[in-house]
Amino acid sequence: MKTKVNKLTETGSDIDYVSAAVSASVKSFRQQQKLSLDELSRRAGVSKGMLVEIEKGSANPSIAILCKVAAALGISVADIVNVTADPLAHLVAEEDIPVLWQGDKGGTARLLAGTQGPDMIELWRWKMFPGEQFASPGHPQRTYELLHVEQGELTLKVDEQQLQVPRGSSAVAKTAAPHSYANLGELPLIFTMAVAEIHS
User: Fold this and answer.
1) Residues 6 or more apart in contact with residue 9 via CB below 8 angstroms
2) CATH assignment, 20-80
3) pLDDT band at 86 (very low <50, low <70, confident <90, very high)
4) How much is the pTM?
5) How far is the C-alpha of 123 from the C-alpha of 180, rounded, in Å?
6) Where are the chain's structural domains?
C-alpha cells in the first residue's frame, strides 16, 4: 500500500482522528489474513471497540496499541503507516514521515522508516521538551532498541533499571519489559532510535 499518510498525534486523554490511510491499512491487513475483529482483538489484547474505531478512522491509537496490532498481524508499525522499504530501495519523503506521538509541550516521535514485518527494523527520531515523558508497557520478546542522544539528556528506564544517557552517548535496551523515555533536564532532548523485533 502506498497511500499517503497524514500525521498522527497522541495527546494523552484527547482523541485525535487517525488518518484514512492507517485505518484502511489495518482493515486491509486484517481482511487479507481472514481475521475477524473478535480474533484480532484476542490476539492483540486490544478491545474490539478500539479496533472498530481505528478501522472507521475515528480513533487515534497510541504507539503501544499500534505495536500490539502490528504484532498480532505479523507486520510492523511501519507497514501500517506505509513507511516500509520496497526492494531494493525506497524513498520516504519528509512530508510523508508520520508523527506517531506528540507530547503535551510539543515534543514529537517520528517514524522515519522501517522494514516490513514480522522481523522488522524501525528508525525513529524523538524530540522531547523538559518535563515530557513516554511510557510503553513493553514489546514482544526479542525486541531491542538502540538509542543515540544528539541533544540534551535522556532518562531511560527499562523495568527497574534506569540510565542517564547524555549528549553524544548511546544505549542498548531489551524492551520486552515495560520502559520509558523522559526529559528530566532543562534543555530540549533529541535522540534517534532503531528498533529491531526478531521472531525467527
Assistant:
1) 16, 60, 99, 101, 102
2) 1.10.260.40
3) low
4) 0.81
5) 17
6) 20-80, 94-197
